[in-house]
Structure formats: C-alpha cells, structure tokens
Amino acid sequence: MTTIEAIDAWEVLDSRGNPTVRARVHTPDGSGTFTVPAGASTGSHEAVEVRDGGDRFGGLGVTEAVEAVEAELEPAVVGRNVTEQAAIDEALLEADGTEDLSRLGANAVLGVSGAVARTAAAVRDEPLYTYLAPEEPGAIPRPMVNILSGGLHAHGGVEIQDFLVVPRGADTYEEAIETVWTVRRAVRDRIEERGVRPLVADEGGFSPPMEGIEEAFELLRAGILDAGFEPATDDVAFAVDVAATHFYDEDAERYRLETDGVSLDREGMIDRVLGWTESYPIVSIEDPLFEDDWAGWRKLAGRLDGVQLLGDDFLVTDRDRLGRAIESGAASAVLVKMNQAGTITRTLGVIERAQEAGLSPVVSARSGETCDSTMADLAVARGAGQLKVGSLARSERLVKYNRLFEIADELGPTLPNASDPV
Ligand SMILES: O=C(O)[C@@H](CO)OP(=O)(O)O
Ligand SMILES: [Mg+2]
What we know:
about 20% strand, TIM Barrel, single chain, Enolase-like, domain 1, binds 2-phosphoglyceric acid, about 40% helix, binds magnesium ion, alpha/beta
C-alpha cells in the first residue's frame, strides 16, 4: 500500500492563456501531476468549473479552485491508498457534495483525480495506459483531426465548429498521421493561393473567410485530392462537429446559420445535415442539434444511415444522459471529456457503459488544453477506438499525438478496423 501524503495545487495557464488548475499528489514512492483542460463551447449540463470572478485574470482566475484542493480535497484523500482510484474519487465527490461539482469546482476535483491516477501508475512503475486498462489495453485509437475551425473556437467565421478528416484508409498510426499531415498541408497551400494568411484557431485548425458552409467542405475535398487521396468513406473521410447549441436561438427555436444566410427550425436543420451527409463522405457528425432537443436527435438518428451520430454537449460525458440516449436510440457515439465528468472513475464508467451498449466512445480534448497527455493513455487503456484532439499543430495537441507514437512503439501501431460500425 502506498498512501497519499500530500497534495499541492497551482494556478497555471492553458493553451488559450487562461488560468487553470494543476495538482500534484505526493506519496513516499513517487508523485504525479495532472493539469486540467477547459472548454469554450461548453454544454450546459457538464460538471462546473469554478472561476473566481472579480478583476483577477478578467474574472477567469482559479485561485478558489486551487485553494479548495488544499483546504478541502487534500484532507479528504490524505492517508488513502493511491491505487484505490474509485474510492478516492468517491471521497472527492462527497467532499464537494453537489452532483455537478459546482461547490469546489470540477477543475479542482479533476485536478486531484487525474493526479492520483498518474501517481498510482508511477508508483506501480507502469505506463498509465496499462494501469488504467481493465486487463489488457486496446489498440491505438484512430484520430479524427481538425483541419478547418469555426464557431466559438475561431471567434467569427463559419458557425460550424470543426471540419475534420478521418484517415480511414490508414492501417497504422504513423500512416494515419502522415495522411492527415499531407492533407493539412494541401489545405494550407490552397488557402495561401487565395491570398489569405493560414492563421489558426484555438485548436490549430485554419479559419479562412468562407462565403458558405459548402465552401469549407469543398476546401477539404480539394485538399484531400491535392494530397493524392480520395475523399471517400474508405480513404480520407470527413467528420463534422456542428456544435449547434452555440448558434441555436432558444427563444425563437431557430438555428441561425448566418454564413449561409438562413435561419432554420428543427426540420430544416435536420434536412441540412442530411444534405451534407449526402454530398460529402461524412462518417461522423457531432452535436448537429441543440443539446436538449431529445426528439430531434431521435429523429435524426432514425434517418442517418452509416454515419456516426456523436453526442458532446448533448451527453456531456454523463452516465445518466448516456443511459437515456441508449434507451431512446438518440445517438450512436459519445464524446468523452474528463472534465465534463469531473473524475477519472466517472469517465471510465461512461466509456464502459457506452461499450456495453455498442456505442462508440470518442475520447476528446478540450479547446483550452494543456501539455498533459493523460487522455491519450486513457483512450488506449480502454480501447476507445477513436480520438479527437484538434489539429496537427500547437504543442498542447501534439503532446497527445506524440504520446501515441510512443505507445504505438510499445504496443504496435495497428489501428482498429476502419470498417467497424461507426
Ligand atoms: O466541442 C468540442 O468538441 C470541444 C473540442 O473540439 O470544444 P470545447 O472544448 O470548446 O467544448
Ligand atoms: Mg463538440
């Protein structure tokens, strides 16, 4: 048994330059650190991060969350065996006392929970991806990689948040990354040819001016062809994170797609999404409808054929919402973000529940990231099959992609079968 002796926490900065929580767990046999990411296009049902308000860092400071780690969470876990992740996470939830972790903050709680997992793996002298595995770890996940960005991540531009590519024709991780790198380079060249600077958004995707949403899809298609691949579901496919909640006008019940000059009701939005899937080789579509439109999601699920319907703001890595989606058939995949759940144990529970029910878990980063690679190990440990980290640029993204190169070297580079049901 290795007991937790102490926990430290600091306010550090994330990839947007915003304050976030870093925690370190100390034991006699070693220590481990975890740094918490933060979303911009957050779902309203996710676990709540605590920010200070007031003048410090424009109200975004996390001193209260940092203090909560040392004042309330440390006493709740000191003396416990560091490998008892589930019991420790339960104690953290009890110390907070709210379902959404809004008292002490999901950023405080996850900081400790993540650092406990990392410390336990270090103490056992094993990689995190085997420590977090039930028995054997799974394969390297197939990445879906952001090429073009819009919505809240681009601070203007198209409303659709992520246009991604999925290297479905690649058999190995290395081949997948090289494929996407080539496509990204080709898209960058096309943007430059238009006399526009290829500046990147929060997740490293390009965000050139667009006259319509179709133009973004066409740019992806052209980049794939320029790179020598086929824009096709079995070669280089498309994925989209619509993040529709963030351009939905709840009062008017309309989706305002200003880039296309339209304002759509639910039926109109469903038809538009289906139109995209008919025109382009889309294999995965995330948050195409408002986060609380359960009836709309069910309807769309019934009309999509062979396209993964992925819930992010809709399911918020929450067991209950996932359970409801499974029962009602409202989604076929769940995005998994540790800080939406708030603890490692809750996150693992969501992955397990999804896998039992035949839904695909897609392990995801946040738009405000840190150079913490835990999510890469988590995805491998649980055989999640798919991973969404952002673009092949910016170090907070690359640390995850590069961690997978290391793991691939140890475990073998083969990706899960691309023809598995999406
Ligand atoms: O919507 C998403 O899937 C994520 C990552 O792309 O964004 P954010 O972290 O801002 O919620
Ligand atoms: Mg999303």
